[in-house]
User: Fold these one by one.
Assistant:
Number 1:
Amino acid sequence: MTEWYPLRPELADVLRDGGLDPAVVEEVIRRALDEDLALGPDVTTAATVPAGARATGDVVPRSPGVLAGVPVAAAVFGLVGGDDVDVALHAADGMAARTNAPVLTVEGPTRALLTAERTALNLVGHLSGVATVTRRWVDAVAGTGAAIRDTRKTIPGLRVLEKYAVRCGGGANHRLALGDAALVKDNHVAAAGGITAAVEAVRAAAPDVPLEVECDTLDQVREAIAAGVELVLLDNFPLADTRTAVELVRGTGVRLEASGGLSLERAAEVAATGVDYLAVGALTHSAPVLDLGFDLRG
């Protein structure tokens, strides 16, 4: 296993300021780098780049979008090259990516820069893609009062970073894992013997955990409200039923989240019904990468 340098303190501070745990980010990067060198060293770079050569390179967007993961990319170069690599951040996460305008410049041993290149681009490209898609959904529901939320439909091992990217795009996070909130779905209802029974079981086991119930019909919404839930997920509800559900919870303090069958084209009309959230799995499971490249200066 290759020995990588530790995460630079100044980059750890940037990540922490963005709400990320530096230790988690470092673990993700180390796994990615180990994957790249699992079968041996970078033979192409070692063969073509003289030992001791130094270079300066820029991470550059090839298309417009929203940035996420720029300090993560910088951290990749630091883990490979250590203090021998200088990094300069030119843009903050959440900012607009401008075509051909560098967001990150690194200077150091050429071999280290080229070894780190693909891992850095994979991470910043994917995270910026998530942020870009999220911003499109956020813009689509602007003025309605509804927020765009992510789901747990994330790439294994990247959830923390993907949910961070959603925030960079202006979205909100749903639960991070299975223990920070309860979501009673149809299989739980079937196992417990009904919505009321499922809610009572969760309340008894975890009284302080936020509780949401997935409903397929208006009758289930009524039962969930009567059971005292805090949040109801409307699964694949037609617009007319969504509006009725909004009326049912009016004055109760129960919030509504629309999910299933959503599209960017329909987002505004669903949000206009008065729901509090739109849950969009596509933010993370279907976001195309934002195209960024790494260019060594001549």
Note: The mean pLDDT is 96.
Number 2:
Amino acid sequence: MEASEPVWRSLMFVPATNAKFVAGAGRHGADGIILDLEDSIPPTEKATARGLVRDAARAIRAAGPEVLVRVNQPLGLIADDLWAVVSQDVAAIVLPKTLGAEHLALVDELLDEIEENRGLAPGHTKIIAMIETAGAMSRMAEIAASRRVLGLIVGSEDLSHALGMEPTPDSLYVPNVLAVAAARAAGKLPFGYAGSIALIDDLAAYRAVVRRAAGLGFVGGFCIHPAQVKVLNEEFAPKAEEIEAARELVAAFAAAKAEGAGAFRHRGRMIDRPIVARAEALLKRARCVAAKTEIST
């Protein structure tokens, strides 16, 4: 995890037109708020919604969470969306139904123009690309490699519909593992979990899905309800016992290295460099999460 990468364990959707939800968005502990212009907004309200985003983003950012905006996919709508929402307060857009490199190049070109027009640093506005179509599954590597793409996420409901399957942990396992591989190969962040985002009544089941995702290499996920935020924040952060075990292992490696050993026995296991590297990565992640928590409290 690079120092410049955001710590976004929990990214909660909030409809841009719901004034009550927007006003309370900063109180639930989410690392980021996604102001939604897409699925939660009916066609007749799109123009109204995009007109509310800049003030909402400013207020939410002042309360602590970072702000993202999920835009619409059709080019006619996304052009209007981007001109309305791109600002210093919006860290990234969430691009639904990302089609491939050509699609991202068009969005990138428009973002370049808007950022220059508004005096923003080139590349200020990042992209989380949503994999939601059958065609995009075979193009994840090129999508992840796009310069503005910060991370990938599999849109569980839309992709399941596109593939004619139910959004279960089993059916979503392969698309999600492929997304992790594509994101990591490009040096980007994998977001998500192999399960339905709509799982809000059974938080124990939701926690199990998220815990599995953390073990698969994901760093955070989207949610639609405040009750899901706590689960995401806890499961996508290293646990105290994991941190202690990692510290012990790294110290044992240093001692073994000083004695000239490449591999060594530790607590019933043979330890070599890849295992130590995972422990070091966990400790780095723990420091980043701790720093974010200190800043937000």
Note: The mean pLDDT is 92.
Number 3:
Amino acid sequence: MRTQSKLYFYLTIGAVLLVIIAVLALNTGVYEFGGTSAFKVLWQYIKGDPGLSLSDKYVIWDVRASRIIMAILIGSMLAVSGTSLQGLFKNPLATGEAIGLTSGATLLAAIAIVLGGHFKPYLPEVVQFSLVGISAFLGALLAMMLVYRISTSAGKTNVVMMLLSGVAITSIGFSITGFLIYISKDEQLRDLTFWNMGSLAAATWTKNIVLAVVIVISYSILLPKGKALNAMMLGERDAQHLGINVEKLKKQIVIITSLMVGTCVAFSGTIGFVGLIVPYILRLLFKSNYVFILPLSAVLGSILLLIADTFSRSIVAPSELPIGILTSLIGGPIFIAILIKFKKSL
């Protein structure tokens, strides 16, 4: 009970901090609301004030509010997926980017963008509408399965093989995506550029609803797995003796993380290193206790991406810096720091 109380305490602090940052982000931007704050304009919109101008309504609700919610949802999912993978592989370097999962999602999304027009008419209407999203999920799932098969032997995962296979998949994905960029048309080229650099500029409430559904399904399965991941740190055989169904746990984490990363890539493009930075920070505070790390990563991931997105749309205003550049700039040095710290064990 004491552990749960501490966890709820930290989650409450994180949630309050997230709300404060969201309010600040809502007030950040080039557009002026006629001398009043963006928060007041949002309250007027919620109340249905007839005196609110159409431009104010559009900026506050369809641009800023939807973008803030998307940053919260995607940041949370990327962080939790990275934390889950690190628990599964028992290694702090196991993230969607490092093991090629993001690259696989990006590759199949790129194929859907450039070549989708040739086979879309033969697909059901529901699939046509979400072709890029489905492709991104399948790409992430296939990359995850391939890395797991290559790096795991006799129930043990070889970390070096995992990272090398991730590099190989990323390299293959990059080369094929480069070829698709070469043969793409102007409109397709813009979409591919958006995917490769990452951005939340295309946020809509429809996308946020889809992300919310994915997050509810994923978290209902993943977040209670803290104790199981703690048991996995002892080794798969010991975890089985403690009553953990190891194979079932592996399949659940592989499928759910692929679903989350694939959905994020489909809606925001490639936003790297969130799944590396967040668990690293939390591990400094809570060691490798996944009972704390897993749920707290959901909140800290939202905070990190929301801060990064607010900077990305204000640092070079009125232009926008792709958010993937900022997260990579932060994550690169942390990745090097982890490599140096764990170089002997690696």
Note: The two ends are 37 Å apart (CA to CA).
